[in-house]
Design a protein that fits this description.
This protein is an alpha/beta fold. The chain has a single domain (about 10-185, about 215-235), classed as NADP-dependent oxidoreductase domain (TIM Barrel, Alpha-Beta Barrel). It is about 40% helix and about 15% strand. The chain is built from 10 helices and 8 strands. It has helices spanning about 15-30, 45-55, 75-90, 110-120, 135-145, 160-170, 190-200, 205-215, 225-235, 240-250, and strands at about 10, 35, 60-65, 95-100, 125-130, 150-155, 175-180, 220. Strands 1-2-3-4-5-6-7-8 form an 8-stranded parallel beta sheet. It is globular. It starts with 9 loop residues before the first strand and ends in a 20-residue tail after the last helix. The structure holds NADP nicotinamide-adenine-dinucleotide phosphate. The site of NADP nicotinamide-adenine-dinucleotide phosphate has 26 residues, from helix 9. NADP nicotinamide-adenine-dinucleotide phosphate binds near residues 182 and 221.
Protein backbone atom coordinates (compact mmCIF):
# COMPACT_ATOMS: atom_id res chain seq x y z
CA UNK A 1 0.00 0.00 0.00
CA UNK A 2 1.56 3.33 -0.99
CA UNK A 3 1.93 6.01 1.63
CA UNK A 4 -0.05 9.24 1.29
CA UNK A 5 0.76 11.62 4.12
CA UNK A 6 -0.89 14.91 5.08
CA UNK A 7 1.35 17.92 4.26
CA UNK A 8 1.95 18.61 7.97
CA UNK A 9 1.95 16.45 11.10
CA UNK A 10 1.78 17.09 14.83
CA UNK A 11 4.91 16.64 16.97
CA UNK A 12 4.28 15.26 20.44
CA UNK A 13 7.66 15.32 22.16
CA UNK A 14 7.09 16.46 25.79
CA UNK A 15 3.33 16.01 25.55
CA UNK A 16 2.72 13.38 28.22
CA UNK A 17 0.09 12.17 30.63
CA UNK A 18 -3.46 13.49 30.75
CA UNK A 19 -2.52 16.99 29.67
CA UNK A 20 -0.76 15.37 26.71
CA UNK A 21 -3.98 13.51 25.87
CA UNK A 22 -5.90 16.81 25.92
CA UNK A 23 -3.33 18.57 23.72
CA UNK A 24 -3.36 15.77 21.14
CA UNK A 25 -7.18 15.69 21.13
CA UNK A 26 -7.08 19.45 20.54
CA UNK A 27 -4.71 18.91 17.58
CA UNK A 28 -7.02 16.28 16.10
CA UNK A 29 -9.97 18.61 16.55
CA UNK A 30 -8.12 21.41 14.77
CA UNK A 31 -7.53 19.05 11.84
CA UNK A 32 -4.18 17.25 12.24
CA UNK A 33 -4.27 13.72 10.83
CA UNK A 34 -0.61 12.75 11.27
CA UNK A 35 0.72 12.26 14.82
CA UNK A 36 4.39 11.74 15.63
CA UNK A 37 5.17 9.81 18.81
CA UNK A 38 8.02 7.55 19.98
CA UNK A 39 8.69 4.95 22.63
CA UNK A 40 11.40 7.26 23.96
CA UNK A 41 8.89 10.13 24.41
CA UNK A 42 7.03 7.85 26.85
CA UNK A 43 3.75 9.05 25.38
CA UNK A 44 2.49 6.27 23.13
CA UNK A 45 -0.25 5.77 25.74
CA UNK A 46 -1.27 9.43 25.68
CA UNK A 47 -1.30 9.55 21.89
CA UNK A 48 -3.23 6.29 21.56
CA UNK A 49 -5.73 7.43 24.19
CA UNK A 50 -6.28 10.71 22.34
CA UNK A 51 -6.90 8.81 19.11
CA UNK A 52 -9.38 6.50 20.83
CA UNK A 53 -11.19 9.35 22.62
CA UNK A 54 -11.36 11.76 19.69
CA UNK A 55 -14.34 11.96 17.33
CA UNK A 56 -12.09 11.53 14.31
CA UNK A 57 -12.48 8.15 12.58
CA UNK A 58 -9.47 5.94 13.31
CA UNK A 59 -8.80 5.27 9.62
CA UNK A 60 -8.25 8.98 8.96
CA UNK A 61 -5.36 9.23 11.42
CA UNK A 62 -1.75 8.25 10.77
CA UNK A 63 -0.29 7.25 14.14
CA UNK A 64 3.50 7.13 14.18
CA UNK A 65 5.89 5.69 16.75
CA UNK A 66 9.59 4.84 16.83
CA UNK A 67 11.86 1.98 17.78
CA UNK A 68 14.54 3.03 20.31
CA UNK A 69 18.26 2.37 19.87
CA UNK A 70 18.46 -0.11 22.77
CA UNK A 71 16.02 -2.41 20.91
CA UNK A 72 17.81 -2.81 17.58
CA UNK A 73 18.74 -6.50 17.95
CA UNK A 74 16.16 -8.53 16.00
CA UNK A 75 14.38 -10.32 18.86
CA UNK A 76 14.31 -7.21 21.03
CA UNK A 77 12.97 -5.20 18.09
CA UNK A 78 10.12 -7.64 17.45
CA UNK A 79 8.94 -7.39 21.06
CA UNK A 80 9.53 -3.64 21.18
CA UNK A 81 7.27 -3.07 18.16
CA UNK A 82 4.57 -5.26 19.71
CA UNK A 83 4.87 -3.32 22.97
CA UNK A 84 4.53 0.00 21.13
CA UNK A 85 1.30 -1.16 19.53
CA UNK A 86 -0.01 -2.46 22.87
CA UNK A 87 0.82 0.79 24.66
CA UNK A 88 -1.24 2.81 22.18
CA UNK A 89 -4.26 0.59 22.87
CA UNK A 90 -4.82 0.54 19.10
CA UNK A 91 -4.85 -2.50 16.85
CA UNK A 92 -1.93 -1.25 14.77
CA UNK A 93 0.48 1.61 14.17
CA UNK A 94 0.23 3.34 10.82
CA UNK A 95 3.90 4.25 10.64
CA UNK A 96 6.78 2.89 12.67
CA UNK A 97 10.29 4.31 12.35
CA UNK A 98 13.78 3.38 13.55
CA UNK A 99 14.56 6.39 15.77
CA UNK A 100 18.33 6.65 15.14
CA UNK A 101 20.71 4.43 13.14
CA UNK A 102 23.33 4.16 15.92
CA UNK A 103 25.90 3.01 13.32
CA UNK A 104 28.56 2.26 15.94
CA UNK A 105 26.30 -0.53 17.24
CA UNK A 106 25.81 -1.83 13.71
CA UNK A 107 22.40 -3.39 14.39
CA UNK A 108 20.10 -1.17 12.36
CA UNK A 109 19.74 -3.73 9.55
CA UNK A 110 18.40 -6.25 12.11
CA UNK A 111 16.03 -3.59 13.42
CA UNK A 112 14.89 -2.90 9.88
CA UNK A 113 14.28 -6.61 9.23
CA UNK A 114 12.06 -6.68 12.34
CA UNK A 115 10.07 -3.72 10.99
CA UNK A 116 9.72 -5.42 7.58
CA UNK A 117 8.41 -8.55 9.31
CA UNK A 118 6.04 -6.53 11.56
CA UNK A 119 4.60 -4.92 8.45
CA UNK A 120 4.05 -8.36 6.90
CA UNK A 121 2.26 -9.40 10.11
CA UNK A 122 -0.04 -6.35 9.92
CA UNK A 123 1.19 -4.80 13.19
CA UNK A 124 2.31 -1.66 11.37
CA UNK A 125 1.05 -0.37 8.01
CA UNK A 126 4.09 1.57 6.87
CA UNK A 127 7.71 1.50 7.94
CA UNK A 128 10.50 4.02 7.82
CA UNK A 129 13.50 5.50 9.58
CA UNK A 130 14.75 8.70 11.16
CA UNK A 131 18.16 10.29 10.92
CA UNK A 132 19.46 7.84 8.32
CA UNK A 133 22.31 9.00 6.08
CA UNK A 134 22.54 7.90 2.43
CA UNK A 135 25.00 5.12 3.29
CA UNK A 136 22.54 3.71 5.84
CA UNK A 137 19.72 3.77 3.27
CA UNK A 138 21.98 2.07 0.72
CA UNK A 139 22.69 -0.70 3.17
CA UNK A 140 19.02 -1.32 4.00
CA UNK A 141 18.24 -1.63 0.32
CA UNK A 142 21.22 -3.85 -0.41
CA UNK A 143 20.72 -6.22 2.53
CA UNK A 144 16.90 -6.41 2.78
CA UNK A 145 15.66 -5.23 -0.62
CA UNK A 146 13.21 -2.88 1.14
CA UNK A 147 13.57 0.91 1.25
CA UNK A 148 11.91 3.00 3.98
CA UNK A 149 8.76 4.91 3.04
CA UNK A 150 9.89 7.84 5.22
CA UNK A 151 13.12 9.34 6.54
CA UNK A 152 12.43 11.80 9.37
CA UNK A 153 15.39 14.18 9.71
CA UNK A 154 16.33 17.44 11.41
CA UNK A 155 15.27 20.07 8.89
CA UNK A 156 14.80 23.82 9.31
CA UNK A 157 16.38 26.90 7.70
CA UNK A 158 19.49 26.67 9.91
CA UNK A 159 19.98 23.08 8.70
CA UNK A 160 18.21 22.84 5.35
CA UNK A 161 19.51 19.41 4.25
CA UNK A 162 19.41 20.21 0.53
CA UNK A 163 21.34 17.06 -0.46
CA UNK A 164 19.21 14.76 1.71
CA UNK A 165 16.01 16.15 0.20
CA UNK A 166 17.33 15.49 -3.32
CA UNK A 167 18.54 12.01 -2.33
CA UNK A 168 15.15 11.09 -0.83
CA UNK A 169 13.32 12.42 -3.87
CA UNK A 170 15.46 10.26 -6.13
CA UNK A 171 14.75 7.18 -4.01
CA UNK A 172 11.00 7.88 -3.62
CA UNK A 173 11.30 8.41 0.16
CA UNK A 174 9.10 10.99 1.94
CA UNK A 175 11.11 13.50 3.98
CA UNK A 176 9.61 14.43 7.34
CA UNK A 177 11.14 17.41 9.18
CA UNK A 178 11.73 17.23 12.92
CA UNK A 179 12.13 20.37 15.02
CA UNK A 180 10.87 22.32 12.00
CA UNK A 181 10.55 25.52 14.06
CA UNK A 182 14.02 25.11 15.50
CA UNK A 183 12.59 24.16 18.91
CA UNK A 184 14.01 26.71 21.36
CA UNK A 185 16.64 28.29 19.10
CA UNK A 186 16.50 31.90 17.89
CA UNK A 187 15.14 30.82 14.47
CA UNK A 188 11.78 32.54 14.84
CA UNK A 189 13.43 35.86 15.75
CA UNK A 190 16.12 35.68 13.07
CA UNK A 191 15.93 38.99 11.12
CA UNK A 192 15.72 37.26 7.72
CA UNK A 193 12.89 35.01 8.91
CA UNK A 194 11.07 38.00 10.39
CA UNK A 195 11.52 40.01 7.17
CA UNK A 196 10.33 37.19 4.91
CA UNK A 197 7.33 36.69 7.20
CA UNK A 198 6.43 40.39 7.13
CA UNK A 199 6.75 40.51 3.33
CA UNK A 200 4.19 37.69 3.06
CA UNK A 201 1.96 38.93 5.90
CA UNK A 202 2.73 35.81 7.93
CA UNK A 203 4.09 35.07 11.38
CA UNK A 204 7.70 33.79 11.50
CA UNK A 205 6.44 30.27 12.32
CA UNK A 206 4.07 30.35 9.34
CA UNK A 207 6.87 31.50 7.04
CA UNK A 208 9.18 28.71 8.21
CA UNK A 209 6.51 26.02 7.76
CA UNK A 210 5.59 27.42 4.31
CA UNK A 211 9.31 27.07 3.50
CA UNK A 212 9.12 23.37 4.46
CA UNK A 213 6.23 22.89 2.05
CA UNK A 214 8.18 24.71 -0.67
CA UNK A 215 11.26 22.47 -0.30
CA UNK A 216 9.14 19.31 -0.32
CA UNK A 217 9.21 18.21 3.33
CA UNK A 218 6.43 17.27 5.76
CA UNK A 219 7.04 19.34 8.93
CA UNK A 220 6.03 18.00 12.35
CA UNK A 221 5.63 21.13 14.53
CA UNK A 222 4.76 20.68 18.19
CA UNK A 223 2.51 23.34 19.75
CA UNK A 224 0.68 23.47 23.05
CA UNK A 225 -2.05 26.00 22.36
CA UNK A 226 -4.89 25.46 19.96
CA UNK A 227 -4.20 28.84 18.39
CA UNK A 228 -0.64 27.83 17.44
CA UNK A 229 -1.80 24.38 16.36
CA UNK A 230 -4.28 25.98 13.99
CA UNK A 231 -1.73 28.49 12.70
CA UNK A 232 0.86 25.79 12.03
CA UNK A 233 -1.62 23.49 10.29
CA UNK A 234 -2.68 26.20 7.85
CA UNK A 235 0.86 27.49 7.34
CA UNK A 236 1.84 24.85 4.78
CA UNK A 237 -0.90 26.22 2.50
CA UNK A 238 0.88 29.57 2.16
CA UNK A 239 3.13 30.03 -0.85
CA UNK A 240 6.43 31.88 -0.48
CA UNK A 241 7.93 33.54 -3.52
CA UNK A 242 11.02 31.69 -4.85
CA UNK A 243 13.43 34.41 -3.72
CA UNK A 244 12.13 34.12 -0.16
CA UNK A 245 12.56 30.32 -0.24
CA UNK A 246 16.16 30.85 -1.34
CA UNK A 247 16.80 33.44 1.37
CA UNK A 248 15.61 31.04 4.07
CA UNK A 249 17.60 28.14 2.62
CA UNK A 250 20.67 30.42 2.61
CA UNK A 251 20.43 30.65 6.42
CA UNK A 252 21.81 27.10 6.49
CA UNK A 253 25.22 26.60 8.05
CA UNK A 254 27.37 23.52 8.65
CA UNK A 255 26.94 23.83 12.43
CA UNK A 256 23.21 24.55 12.11
CA UNK A 257 22.10 21.43 13.98
CA UNK A 258 20.18 22.17 17.19
CA UNK A 259 22.26 19.82 19.30
CA UNK A 260 24.87 17.11 18.92
CA UNK A 261 22.67 15.18 16.52
CA UNK A 262 25.06 13.93 13.85
CA UNK A 263 23.66 10.50 12.88
CA UNK A 264 27.13 9.30 11.88
CA UNK A 265 28.33 9.42 15.48
CA UNK A 266 25.32 9.82 17.77
CA UNK A 267 24.28 6.92 19.99
CA UNK A 268 20.67 7.23 21.10
CA UNK A 269 19.41 4.83 23.69
N1 LIG B 1 13.07 11.70 14.97
C1 LIG B 1 13.77 12.45 15.80
O1 LIG B 1 14.94 12.16 16.07
C2 LIG B 1 13.14 13.67 16.39
C3 LIG B 1 13.92 14.58 17.12
C4 LIG B 1 13.31 15.71 17.64
C5 LIG B 1 11.95 15.93 17.43
N2 LIG B 1 11.19 15.00 16.73
C6 LIG B 1 9.74 15.22 16.48
O2 LIG B 1 9.58 16.53 15.89
C7 LIG B 1 8.59 17.23 16.66
C8 LIG B 1 8.80 18.74 16.59
O3 LIG B 1 10.06 19.10 17.07
P1 LIG B 1 10.28 19.86 18.45
O4 LIG B 1 9.17 19.53 19.36
O5 LIG B 1 11.66 19.55 18.86
O6 LIG B 1 10.32 21.40 18.09
P2 LIG B 1 9.53 22.41 17.10
O7 LIG B 1 8.26 21.82 16.65
O8 LIG B 1 10.53 22.85 16.09
O9 LIG B 1 9.30 23.63 18.07
C9 LIG B 1 8.42 23.55 19.14
C10 LIG B 1 8.50 24.87 19.89
O10 LIG B 1 7.96 25.91 19.07
C11 LIG B 1 6.90 26.56 19.75
N3 LIG B 1 5.87 26.91 18.75
C12 LIG B 1 5.01 26.07 18.14
N4 LIG B 1 4.22 26.74 17.27
C13 LIG B 1 4.59 28.04 17.33
C14 LIG B 1 4.14 29.20 16.69
N5 LIG B 1 3.17 29.16 15.76
N6 LIG B 1 4.74 30.38 16.99
C15 LIG B 1 5.74 30.44 17.91
N7 LIG B 1 6.21 29.36 18.56
C16 LIG B 1 5.64 28.15 18.28
C17 LIG B 1 6.40 25.55 20.76
O11 LIG B 1 5.84 26.21 21.87
P3 LIG B 1 4.57 25.64 22.70
O12 LIG B 1 4.72 24.15 22.76
O13 LIG B 1 4.68 26.31 23.98
O14 LIG B 1 3.36 26.02 21.91
C18 LIG B 1 7.68 24.84 21.15
O15 LIG B 1 8.41 25.57 22.12
C19 LIG B 1 8.75 16.65 18.06
O16 LIG B 1 7.65 17.00 18.89
C20 LIG B 1 8.87 15.20 17.74
O17 LIG B 1 7.59 14.65 17.45
C21 LIG B 1 11.78 13.90 16.21
Amino acid sequence: MSLALPPVGFGTYQLNGLSGVDTVISALRVGYRLLDSAMNYENEGAVGTAVRRSDVPRDEIVVTSKLPGRHHAYDLAVTSIEESVLRTGLDRLDLHLIHWPNPSHDLYVEAWQALVDAQRRGLVFHIGVCNFLPEHLDRLERETGVLPAVNQIELHPYFPQVEALADHRRRGIVTQAWSPLGRKSDLLTNPVVVEVAEQHDLTPAEAVLAWHAAVGAVPLPKASSQERQRQNLAAVGHVLDPAAVERLTALGRPDGRLFDGDPATRVED
